[in-house]
Amino acid sequence: MTEAWHRPLRHIKGGELTGDTAQTSGMRRLEAVSGKTAGSEKVWMGETHVGPHTNSGDHHHGEAETAIYVKSGHPVFVFADGDEEIRLETEPGDYIFVPPWVPHREENPGDEDAVVIIARSSQEGIVVNLPSLWAQVDRPDS
């Protein structure tokens, strides 16, 4: 029997990322580390591409916390605060934290692809698409 600390590391090459994950209009998610690809139990990691002059649909990631690293481009992260849309304009090297259940969207006003690296506190890429940032979010604890 193999003990937990003797399990092998998993190497997922950049060219092996898969788009076989939940998607949101206007963006393309690629899965690297997940329960399905690497046997992870508590983390999901991958990247998202948003083409030039494109917005994603509004969405949230359920109970998962999401950490984002801006690899290239100048994506804008948009969320609601009361009746107002808040826009976080980013550049390569910036990080964004998205709390659980928070509706948001990514926008790319630039002329090049915006590529971000994502890590989530779940082993699956949870995505719940919404009709707007102000849509009712069904949380199991509410």
Automatic annotation (TrEMBL):
Q: Which InterPro entries match?
A: Bacilysin_H2HPP_isomerase, Cupin_2, RmlC-like_jellyroll, RmlC_Cupin_sf
In terms of Gene3D superfamilies, this protein maps to: Jelly Rolls
* Location of the Cupin type-2 domain: 48-117
Source organism, top-level taxon: Bacteria
Instruction: State the residue spans of region: Disordered.
Output: 1-22
Q: Which residues form the signal peptide?
A: none
What's the protein here called?
Cupin type-2 domain-containing protein
Which species does the entry assign this protein to?
Amycolatopsis tucumanensis
Its lineage opens with: Bacteria, Bacillati, Actinomycetota, Actinomycetes, Pseudonocardiales
